[in-house]
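Q: Got a minute? One more chain.
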Amino acid sequence: MGAACAILMAGTSAAPANSPVQRARALQKQLESKHPAINPDSLLQVMESNDRDLCAYLKSNPGDSEAAVLLMQIHDGRALFDEYAKIYSGGLEESRPSEPYLEIVKGALRTDSLNAELHYWMSRLCSIPQLTPDGRPAGIPRLPEAVEEARRSVAIDAGEPAYRNNLAYLLLLAGDEPGAREIFRHLDKDHPLYLLLHDWERMPVIEGTIAQKDSGGFMLPITSPLAYEFAGMTRSYVFCGPATALEKNCRERWPSFRLFLDPDSTRHSPGTRRYAQHLKWRGDDLEPDAVLSDVSGGQEPGVGGGGIWVEVLEIRALATDPPDLHPGVSPGQPYCRLEFHNKRGPN
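A: Always. Here it is, folded:
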Protein backbone atom coordinates (compact mmCIF):
# COMPACT_ATOMS: atom_id res chain seq x y z
CA MET A 1 0.00 0.00 0.00
CA GLY A 2 2.88 2.37 0.81
CA ALA A 3 4.54 1.78 -2.60
CA ALA A 4 1.28 2.39 -4.43
CA CYS A 5 0.78 5.61 -2.50
CA ALA A 6 4.28 6.75 -3.35
CA ILE A 7 3.68 6.09 -7.05
CA LEU A 8 0.40 7.97 -6.87
CA MET A 9 2.00 10.98 -5.23
CA ALA A 10 4.86 10.93 -7.73
CA GLY A 11 2.36 10.82 -10.61
CA THR A 12 0.36 13.77 -9.31
CA SER A 13 3.18 15.98 -8.10
CA ALA A 14 5.80 15.62 -10.85
CA ALA A 15 4.51 18.83 -12.43
CA PRO A 16 5.26 22.25 -10.85
CA ALA A 17 3.72 22.43 -7.40
CA ASN A 18 1.73 25.59 -8.15
CA SER A 19 0.04 24.30 -11.30
CA PRO A 20 -3.42 22.82 -10.61
CA VAL A 21 -3.85 22.05 -14.31
CA GLN A 22 -0.63 20.02 -14.45
CA ARG A 23 -1.60 18.08 -11.33
CA ALA A 24 -5.07 17.43 -12.72
CA ARG A 25 -3.61 16.19 -16.02
CA ALA A 26 -1.42 13.72 -14.14
CA LEU A 27 -4.34 12.52 -12.02
CA GLN A 28 -6.65 12.09 -15.00
CA LYS A 29 -3.93 10.14 -16.81
CA GLN A 30 -3.73 7.80 -13.82
CA LEU A 31 -7.54 7.44 -13.67
CA GLU A 32 -7.70 6.54 -17.37
CA SER A 33 -4.88 4.00 -17.12
CA LYS A 34 -5.75 0.31 -17.39
CA HIS A 35 -3.46 -0.36 -14.43
CA PRO A 36 -3.50 2.81 -12.31
CA ALA A 37 -0.93 2.93 -9.55
CA ILE A 38 -3.37 4.60 -7.18
CA ASN A 39 -3.94 3.76 -3.57
CA PRO A 40 -7.74 3.41 -3.27
CA ASP A 41 -7.61 4.64 0.34
CA SER A 42 -6.24 8.02 -0.75
CA LEU A 43 -7.90 8.29 -4.16
CA LEU A 44 -10.95 10.27 -3.02
CA GLN A 45 -8.78 12.70 -1.05
CA VAL A 46 -6.58 13.30 -4.08
CA MET A 47 -9.63 13.83 -6.32
CA GLU A 48 -11.25 16.22 -3.84
CA SER A 49 -8.02 18.18 -3.53
CA ASN A 50 -7.72 18.49 -7.32
CA ASP A 51 -11.39 19.50 -7.52
CA ARG A 52 -10.91 22.32 -4.99
CA ASP A 53 -7.67 23.53 -6.58
CA LEU A 54 -9.17 23.66 -10.07
CA CYS A 55 -12.26 25.52 -8.83
CA ALA A 56 -10.02 28.13 -7.19
CA TYR A 57 -7.80 28.36 -10.30
CA LEU A 58 -10.79 28.83 -12.63
CA LYS A 59 -12.16 31.74 -10.58
CA SER A 60 -9.24 33.80 -11.87
CA ASN A 61 -8.86 31.95 -15.19
CA PRO A 62 -12.46 31.44 -16.34
CA GLY A 63 -11.54 31.04 -19.99
CA ASP A 64 -9.25 28.02 -19.51
CA SER A 65 -11.35 25.37 -21.24
CA GLU A 66 -8.84 22.58 -20.62
CA ALA A 67 -8.97 23.24 -16.89
CA ALA A 68 -12.78 23.28 -16.98
CA VAL A 69 -12.88 19.92 -18.79
CA LEU A 70 -10.38 18.40 -16.34
CA LEU A 71 -12.44 19.68 -13.44
CA MET A 72 -15.60 18.05 -14.79
CA GLN A 73 -13.84 14.74 -15.49
CA ILE A 74 -12.47 14.57 -11.94
CA HIS A 75 -15.70 15.82 -10.36
CA ASP A 76 -17.72 13.25 -12.33
CA GLY A 77 -15.46 10.40 -11.25
CA ARG A 78 -15.71 11.47 -7.61
CA ALA A 79 -19.51 11.83 -7.77
CA LEU A 80 -19.86 8.43 -9.45
CA PHE A 81 -17.81 6.82 -6.69
CA ASP A 82 -20.10 8.42 -4.09
CA GLU A 83 -23.23 7.19 -5.90
CA TYR A 84 -22.03 3.59 -5.98
CA ALA A 85 -20.94 3.74 -2.34
CA LYS A 86 -24.31 5.07 -1.18
CA ILE A 87 -26.36 2.58 -3.19
CA TYR A 88 -24.37 -0.50 -2.24
CA SER A 89 -24.30 0.51 1.42
CA GLY A 90 -28.10 0.78 1.41
CA GLY A 91 -28.14 4.58 1.49
CA LEU A 92 -30.09 7.00 -0.67
CA GLU A 93 -28.69 8.31 -3.92
CA GLU A 94 -28.20 12.05 -3.63
CA SER A 95 -28.44 14.73 -6.29
CA ARG A 96 -25.06 16.00 -7.44
CA PRO A 97 -24.33 19.68 -6.83
CA SER A 98 -24.54 21.74 -10.00
CA GLU A 99 -22.60 24.71 -8.64
CA PRO A 100 -20.01 26.07 -8.90
CA TYR A 101 -19.51 23.74 -11.86
CA LEU A 102 -22.34 25.11 -14.00
CA GLU A 103 -21.00 28.67 -13.87
CA ILE A 104 -17.44 27.45 -14.45
CA VAL A 105 -18.42 25.57 -17.63
CA LYS A 106 -20.48 28.56 -18.79
CA GLY A 107 -17.44 30.79 -18.33
CA ALA A 108 -15.24 28.47 -20.37
CA LEU A 109 -17.84 28.32 -23.15
CA ARG A 110 -17.82 32.10 -23.47
CA THR A 111 -14.29 31.89 -24.86
CA ASP A 112 -14.47 28.43 -26.44
CA SER A 113 -18.01 28.10 -27.78
CA LEU A 114 -17.15 25.33 -30.26
CA ASN A 115 -15.74 22.99 -27.64
CA ALA A 116 -17.89 19.85 -27.93
CA GLU A 117 -16.77 18.46 -24.56
CA LEU A 118 -17.75 21.64 -22.74
CA HIS A 119 -21.23 21.46 -24.28
CA TYR A 120 -21.37 17.80 -23.23
CA TRP A 121 -20.57 18.69 -19.63
CA MET A 122 -23.01 21.58 -19.73
CA SER A 123 -25.67 19.10 -20.82
CA ARG A 124 -24.78 16.72 -18.01
CA LEU A 125 -24.98 19.49 -15.42
CA CYS A 126 -28.35 20.71 -16.71
CA SER A 127 -29.76 17.17 -16.50
CA ILE A 128 -29.10 16.74 -12.78
CA PRO A 129 -32.44 15.83 -11.17
CA GLN A 130 -33.88 17.39 -8.07
CA LEU A 131 -34.49 14.84 -5.34
CA THR A 132 -36.99 14.84 -2.50
CA PRO A 133 -35.65 14.40 1.07
CA ASP A 134 -36.35 10.67 0.85
CA GLY A 135 -34.22 10.37 -2.30
CA ARG A 136 -36.90 10.17 -4.99
CA PRO A 137 -36.48 12.16 -8.23
CA ALA A 138 -38.75 15.21 -8.21
CA GLY A 139 -38.02 16.61 -11.66
CA ILE A 140 -35.34 17.90 -14.03
CA PRO A 141 -36.09 21.64 -14.34
CA ARG A 142 -33.41 22.26 -16.99
CA LEU A 143 -34.04 19.18 -19.14
CA PRO A 144 -34.84 21.18 -22.35
CA GLU A 145 -31.56 23.06 -21.94
CA ALA A 146 -29.74 19.77 -21.32
CA VAL A 147 -31.10 18.32 -24.58
CA GLU A 148 -30.10 21.46 -26.50
CA GLU A 149 -26.55 21.36 -25.12
CA ALA A 150 -26.33 17.65 -25.95
CA ARG A 151 -27.40 18.40 -29.54
CA ARG A 152 -24.66 21.03 -29.77
CA SER A 153 -21.98 18.60 -28.60
CA VAL A 154 -23.08 16.07 -31.24
CA ALA A 155 -23.29 18.75 -33.96
CA ILE A 156 -19.69 19.77 -33.25
CA ASP A 157 -18.32 16.24 -32.91
CA ALA A 158 -20.72 13.58 -34.20
CA GLY A 159 -17.99 10.94 -34.08
CA GLU A 160 -17.79 10.81 -30.28
CA PRO A 161 -20.03 7.97 -29.02
CA ALA A 162 -20.31 9.43 -25.50
CA TYR A 163 -21.98 12.58 -26.86
CA ARG A 164 -24.54 10.61 -28.90
CA ASN A 165 -25.18 8.23 -26.02
CA ASN A 166 -25.83 11.20 -23.74
CA LEU A 167 -28.20 12.80 -26.27
CA ALA A 168 -30.13 9.55 -26.71
CA TYR A 169 -30.55 9.11 -22.96
CA LEU A 170 -31.74 12.71 -22.54
CA LEU A 171 -34.25 12.27 -25.36
CA LEU A 172 -35.54 9.22 -23.49
CA LEU A 173 -35.92 11.33 -20.34
CA ALA A 174 -37.71 13.99 -22.38
CA GLY A 175 -40.25 11.45 -23.71
CA ASP A 176 -38.89 11.11 -27.25
CA GLU A 177 -38.58 7.33 -27.17
CA PRO A 178 -38.41 6.84 -30.98
CA GLY A 179 -35.63 9.43 -31.25
CA ALA A 180 -33.68 7.85 -28.40
CA ARG A 181 -34.14 4.35 -29.79
CA GLU A 182 -32.85 5.37 -33.21
CA ILE A 183 -29.68 6.95 -31.81
CA PHE A 184 -28.99 3.94 -29.59
CA ARG A 185 -29.52 1.67 -32.61
CA HIS A 186 -27.00 3.61 -34.70
CA LEU A 187 -24.52 3.52 -31.84
CA ASP A 188 -24.74 -0.25 -31.49
CA LYS A 189 -27.48 -2.72 -32.40
CA ASP A 190 -26.53 -4.58 -29.22
CA HIS A 191 -26.70 -1.44 -27.06
CA PRO A 192 -28.56 -2.52 -23.89
CA LEU A 193 -30.94 0.43 -24.00
CA TYR A 194 -31.68 -0.08 -27.69
CA LEU A 195 -32.55 -3.73 -27.02
CA LEU A 196 -34.75 -2.71 -24.10
CA LEU A 197 -36.60 -0.06 -26.13
CA HIS A 198 -36.88 -2.41 -29.10
CA ASP A 199 -38.66 -4.91 -26.86
CA TRP A 200 -41.27 -2.30 -25.96
CA GLU A 201 -41.58 -1.35 -29.64
CA ARG A 202 -42.57 -4.96 -30.39
CA MET A 203 -44.89 -5.25 -27.39
CA PRO A 204 -48.54 -5.32 -28.57
CA VAL A 205 -51.03 -2.84 -27.11
CA ILE A 206 -53.76 -4.56 -25.09
CA GLU A 207 -57.19 -3.13 -25.83
CA GLY A 208 -58.64 -1.12 -22.97
CA THR A 209 -55.35 -0.42 -21.19
CA ILE A 210 -54.41 3.16 -20.26
CA ALA A 211 -50.66 3.86 -20.10
CA GLN A 212 -49.40 5.45 -16.89
CA LYS A 213 -46.56 7.93 -16.95
CA ASP A 214 -43.67 7.12 -14.63
CA SER A 215 -43.19 10.31 -12.63
CA GLY A 216 -39.75 9.46 -11.32
CA GLY A 217 -38.22 6.48 -13.06
CA PHE A 218 -36.76 8.47 -15.95
CA MET A 219 -34.92 11.00 -13.80
CA LEU A 220 -31.67 9.31 -12.90
CA PRO A 221 -28.43 10.50 -14.51
CA ILE A 222 -27.00 8.21 -17.15
CA THR A 223 -24.00 7.39 -14.92
CA SER A 224 -26.20 6.14 -12.07
CA PRO A 225 -25.82 2.42 -11.28
CA LEU A 226 -29.62 2.28 -11.39
CA ALA A 227 -30.02 4.06 -14.74
CA TYR A 228 -30.63 0.90 -16.78
CA GLU A 229 -33.23 -0.42 -14.35
CA PHE A 230 -35.12 2.86 -14.22
CA ALA A 231 -34.82 3.69 -17.92
CA GLY A 232 -37.76 1.55 -18.87
CA MET A 233 -37.66 -1.90 -17.28
CA THR A 234 -41.34 -1.55 -16.33
CA ARG A 235 -44.41 -0.30 -18.19
CA SER A 236 -47.53 0.43 -16.14
CA TYR A 237 -51.18 0.54 -17.21
CA VAL A 238 -54.67 0.79 -15.77
CA PHE A 239 -57.48 -1.40 -17.08
CA CYS A 240 -61.00 -0.25 -16.23
CA GLY A 241 -62.57 -3.61 -15.51
CA PRO A 242 -62.04 -6.94 -13.72
CA ALA A 243 -59.16 -9.31 -14.35
CA THR A 244 -61.44 -11.67 -16.29
CA ALA A 245 -62.15 -8.92 -18.86
CA LEU A 246 -58.44 -8.07 -19.07
CA GLU A 247 -57.61 -11.74 -19.61
CA LYS A 248 -60.18 -11.91 -22.41
CA ASN A 249 -58.59 -8.92 -24.17
CA CYS A 250 -55.14 -10.46 -23.81
CA ARG A 251 -56.40 -13.64 -25.46
CA GLU A 252 -57.19 -11.64 -28.58
CA ARG A 253 -53.43 -11.37 -28.95
CA TRP A 254 -52.39 -14.64 -27.26
CA PRO A 255 -55.12 -17.33 -27.48
CA SER A 256 -53.49 -19.43 -24.73
CA PHE A 257 -53.06 -16.50 -22.36
CA ARG A 258 -54.20 -17.11 -18.81
CA LEU A 259 -53.86 -14.97 -15.70
CA PHE A 260 -52.86 -17.18 -12.78
CA LEU A 261 -54.36 -16.19 -9.44
CA ASP A 262 -51.94 -15.98 -6.54
CA PRO A 263 -53.56 -17.87 -3.64
CA ASP A 264 -51.27 -16.20 -1.07
CA SER A 265 -53.33 -13.18 -0.03
CA THR A 266 -50.70 -12.07 2.52
CA ARG A 267 -48.62 -10.49 -0.25
CA HIS A 268 -51.14 -7.77 -1.01
CA SER A 269 -53.85 -5.59 0.57
CA PRO A 270 -57.14 -7.13 1.79
CA GLY A 271 -59.68 -7.26 -1.03
CA THR A 272 -56.96 -7.14 -3.69
CA ARG A 273 -56.27 -10.08 -5.98
CA ARG A 274 -52.89 -10.67 -7.58
CA TYR A 275 -52.50 -12.42 -10.92
CA ALA A 276 -49.45 -13.03 -13.07
CA GLN A 277 -48.18 -14.57 -16.29
CA HIS A 278 -44.82 -14.80 -18.05
CA LEU A 279 -44.32 -14.08 -21.74
CA LYS A 280 -41.35 -15.55 -23.56
CA TRP A 281 -39.80 -14.22 -26.75
CA ARG A 282 -40.03 -16.52 -29.75
CA GLY A 283 -38.37 -14.54 -32.50
CA ASP A 284 -40.18 -11.21 -32.64
CA ASP A 285 -43.29 -12.57 -30.93
CA LEU A 286 -44.21 -13.13 -27.30
CA GLU A 287 -45.93 -16.30 -26.11
CA PRO A 288 -47.28 -17.24 -22.66
CA ASP A 289 -45.17 -19.82 -20.83
CA ALA A 290 -46.01 -19.49 -17.12
CA VAL A 291 -47.28 -22.30 -14.93
CA LEU A 292 -49.31 -21.90 -11.74
CA SER A 293 -46.36 -22.69 -9.45
CA ASP A 294 -44.43 -19.68 -10.83
CA VAL A 295 -47.12 -17.37 -9.52
CA SER A 296 -48.17 -19.07 -6.30
CA GLY A 297 -44.52 -19.30 -5.29
CA GLY A 298 -43.94 -15.66 -6.12
CA GLN A 299 -41.05 -16.66 -8.35
CA GLU A 300 -40.85 -13.64 -10.60
CA PRO A 301 -37.77 -14.05 -12.82
CA GLY A 302 -34.86 -11.80 -11.93
CA VAL A 303 -33.29 -9.32 -14.34
CA GLY A 304 -31.55 -11.41 -16.99
CA GLY A 305 -34.18 -14.14 -16.85
CA GLY A 306 -35.59 -13.02 -20.18
CA GLY A 307 -39.07 -12.32 -21.47
CA ILE A 308 -41.78 -10.13 -19.97
CA TRP A 309 -43.33 -10.73 -16.56
CA VAL A 310 -46.99 -9.69 -16.38
CA GLU A 311 -48.23 -8.56 -12.98
CA VAL A 312 -51.91 -7.68 -12.37
CA LEU A 313 -53.58 -6.36 -9.21
CA GLU A 314 -57.38 -6.38 -9.26
CA ILE A 315 -58.55 -3.62 -6.90
CA ARG A 316 -61.90 -2.27 -5.78
CA ALA A 317 -62.35 1.39 -6.67
CA LEU A 318 -62.72 3.80 -3.75
CA ALA A 319 -64.82 6.94 -3.58
CA THR A 320 -61.64 8.81 -2.62
CA ASP A 321 -59.74 7.75 -5.77
CA PRO A 322 -58.76 10.52 -8.23
CA PRO A 323 -61.51 10.77 -10.89
CA ASP A 324 -59.08 10.15 -13.76
CA LEU A 325 -57.52 7.03 -12.19
CA HIS A 326 -60.09 4.58 -13.55
CA PRO A 327 -62.55 6.34 -15.90
CA GLY A 328 -66.04 4.87 -15.82
CA VAL A 329 -65.43 2.60 -12.81
CA SER A 330 -67.79 3.30 -9.89
CA PRO A 331 -66.75 2.97 -6.24
CA GLY A 332 -66.82 -0.67 -5.21
CA GLN A 333 -66.31 -1.93 -8.76
CA PRO A 334 -63.05 -3.68 -9.81
CA TYR A 335 -60.29 -2.28 -11.97
CA CYS A 336 -56.76 -3.54 -12.64
CA ARG A 337 -53.29 -2.18 -12.27
CA LEU A 338 -51.19 -3.90 -14.92
CA GLU A 339 -47.41 -3.95 -15.07
CA PHE A 340 -45.07 -5.45 -17.65
CA HIS A 341 -41.58 -6.10 -16.25
CA ASN A 342 -38.87 -6.55 -18.87
CA LYS A 343 -36.47 -9.26 -17.71
CA ARG A 344 -33.78 -8.65 -20.31
CA GLY A 345 -30.36 -8.33 -18.69
CA PRO A 346 -28.26 -5.16 -19.07
CA ASN A 347 -25.46 -7.06 -20.82
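A: The mean pLDDT is 84.
Q: Perfect, thanks.
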